[in-house]
Write a structure and sequence with these properties.
This protein is mainly alpha-helical. Helices cover 66% and strands 0% of the residues. Helix 5 runs antiparallel to helix 12 and helix 6 runs parallel beside helix 17.
Amino acid sequence: MWRVKPLDAIMASARKKSLHRSLGPIQLILLGIGSVIGSGIFVLTAEAAQKAGPAMLVAFIIAGLVCAVAALCYAEMAAMVPVSGSAYTYSYAVMGELVAWVVGWALILEYAVAAGAVSVAWSGYVVGLIENLLRIDIPNTLVRGPLDGGLVNLPAMAVALAVTALLVKGTKESAAVNAVLVAIKIGALTLFVVLAVPVMKMQNFTPFAPLGVAGMSAAAASIFFAYVGFDAVSTAAEETRDPQRNMPIGLIGALLVCTTFYIIVAAGVIGTVGAQPLLDAAGVGLRPGSPELAAACASAGEARVVCSKEALAWTLRQIGWREIGNLVGLAAGLALPSVVLMMMFGQTRIFFVMSRDGLLPASLSAIHPKFKTPYVIIAITGVAVALFSAFFPVGVLADISNSGTLFAFLMVAAAVMILRRTDPDRRRPFRTPAVFVVAPLAIAGCLYLFCNLPGGTKLMFVGWALIGLVVYFLYGYRRSHVALGLIDVPETDPQAPSSEAQAPGAPRRR
């Protein structure tokens, strides 16, 4: 279970059963922006305000710094190993099959659960827009999950299933649609900044940290979700033209654009309408996504940004821009599906590669004869996302997603350092600067944020990992291609791994 799959074999496997390369650098940056800017800034602004108040500005910066050092590690691995699979593939090559399986299993929490969270965020904006335009009150029973004062979130289910259909259609078509949605999203955020920043009031920034450092740290752990998705760019490596050049551009370029927007928009919300949290009788902040907070918001008439399901649109309406607020709500309704799309895109590609390696049934990696997409995995993922979004609030889903993401990021940072020692001569089109400083910072940052997640989330992650281990030892341990000696080797590669990398007595597969 500690067996590794050599990097040359990984590259050979990708060539034998590969996906079509159709994405360039601009498309990758747009895919990165599309997957990152979404519920984090459009909706989780309210979640962060409830945990930290105005100090959520610091939370955005902390989360952004952790992502920045992790992005540098991702960029080196993605450029050096330009195949689908992200952290799963990198771990398989460096730390062995068991670690790779756990990472791949954790990535389910990152991508599928995150797609559910963004679907819930989309529902909040669309429902708010309809209610404001038509002057009606849609019953919460049909548009919120049980923990959030409702029964089932039907709009969230609908958007998840619609995105599933689009992904089956194909990568190129999905990227083209995403480019339009990213433009709408950036336009909406720019409009918000133009209208909100000039009317900010400095008194709204005090008290700056009403719940102290603990609240700020908890907000950073949650708002990390605002950056989840930039690594989805790396899962598209196998579908990218000239990945050695374009992957680092896509990863780092998308992160820089998104971080700038986050800080300015968050400051606009705080400075215009305030961001003080709702407290219980003991002066403790109420937990976001809880029935207690829902009840407190109902008592307050939903007149606080921490209660809003559409924070940016709500803020604009409060400062006198009702119609513009509706327009921002419309933009979010149009654009947030691009985030759902990229989260599901990343999830399906992880499953595709795990299936191609024999750790999951081969039937899951079946390619559609017409659309050339892994349609079986897409369909399974789409149904799971629809169920997540139907019954859980955005904050709970975001925290669960963060647990898987932080674990994967930590493993990538470790893999970069290990590979620098074990394979120093391998060509690296992009090298992480000061890797033995940057990578440990990434590991420490991930551990810090993970420790500040809610206790229930951490227990759920451990439980999910244990379930994954059971699945691995019942299926993948004996059926993986590496275990069977089915290691692909390039015909003309003089550096190909020797038969010693195969199972004893097993034939080399070409």
